[in-house]
Amino acid sequence: MPSTPSRPLSTHPSSRNLSPSSHTPVFDMSRCVRPAARLAVAVASRSAPLAAARSTFASSTFRSLQTSSAARPLAAGWSASQRRSYASTAGTKEYTVREALNEALAEELESNSKVFILGEEVAQYNGAYKVTKGLLDRFGEKRVIDTPITESGFCGLAVGAALSGLHPVCEFMTFNFAMQAIDQIINSAAKTLYMSGGIQPCNITFRGPNGFAAGVGAQHSQDYSAWYGSIPGLKVVAPWSAEDAKGLLKAAIRDPNPVVVLENELLYGQTFPMSEAAQKDDFVLPIGKAKIERAGKDVTLVTLSRCVGQTLAAAESLKKNFGIEAEVINLRSVKPLDIDTIVQSVKKTHRLIAVESGYPAFGVGAEILALTMEYAFDYLDAPAQRITGSEVPTPYAEKLEELSFPTEALIEDFTAKFLRA
């Protein structure tokens, strides 16, 4: 078996052992490697056998209670396997992610009178990031509602409205501020369906920017993907492209369960091609289905949100500079996580690297590695690895901030060394 790449170790490497339980496989997590004091790259051990399926009676009972979305046909021209880059070049237009989100909101407000939007500055100011631009003029103040600066208050109002049968879209100026409303999100929205014995659904969408931006400091730069992904009862999506943004937001609003839509501030103004199929008002992407953005045969790179673009750029450089064909998977959905697409890719490439900008400990990458060890261990030719953000509150200083998160160059460098090892 090839050895792992030689990387500089921190002076205090950590090790973690997972305790055995009735439903958790036993395996060791080796040292947390920090290349150039920059990113944490954790290596999963191959020492333990695969465990049996993890489902317990309680979790299976909850899944049976969780309300399922009504099956909806995909828009014409959209591949069920989600393996294309875009549906077709015919009729393609350029959309920013902001425009795609705005269009999704407008279409859902138009088609369903139960849908309304509330949050700070969503109405008269057109949204802090102009995602709700023009919606107040079009739909009126009863459906596009400005709130006081009190996340706990307006989130509680939104959850109550959802429990009463409406379909609110609750916008947070940033998910960092949603910490003020964590009780309403976790204890009210996420748990009510289960605690009511499947009687009381909560159709609510929580949306807003997530993760670091540029020079906004540690308290405004956290990535909550793993936080919300760990909560039973919540669905969590993280769009990258304009098509992702529109299709996933529309799916979230239509889903009878509470859905957290983790957008990225740095992507709002980025332009992507929008296929003719995606421009239609019936375009909806399935929650829980990943997309293969780039096919490859040498290594599987699994990523999400803004890191998708960085990973795709790194994959092109890997091909140009090293002849490495990397397969890039855009998760789209954090929970449910599409492990089937990942396993099928690993069966082909036999190597896996997870890429995210979140913290290394207990992150999305950690979950991907754990599931890969459970369901694709026999197909791995080398230990699965992860590239993450640094184990540090995000610095305010520009240069230090840049050193705290994955870059295209780092993804390329680590992947090349991983395959040469």
TrEMBL record:
CDD domains for the chain: TPP_PYR_E1-PDHc-beta_like (cd07036)
Cofactor field: thiamine diphosphate
Gene Ontology CC, one term: pyruvate dehydrogenase complex
Ranges of residues in domain Transketolase-like pyrimidine-binding: 95-270
Top EC category: oxidoreductase
Top-level lineage group: Eukaryota
Protein name, UniProt field: Pyruvate dehydrogenase E1 component subunit beta
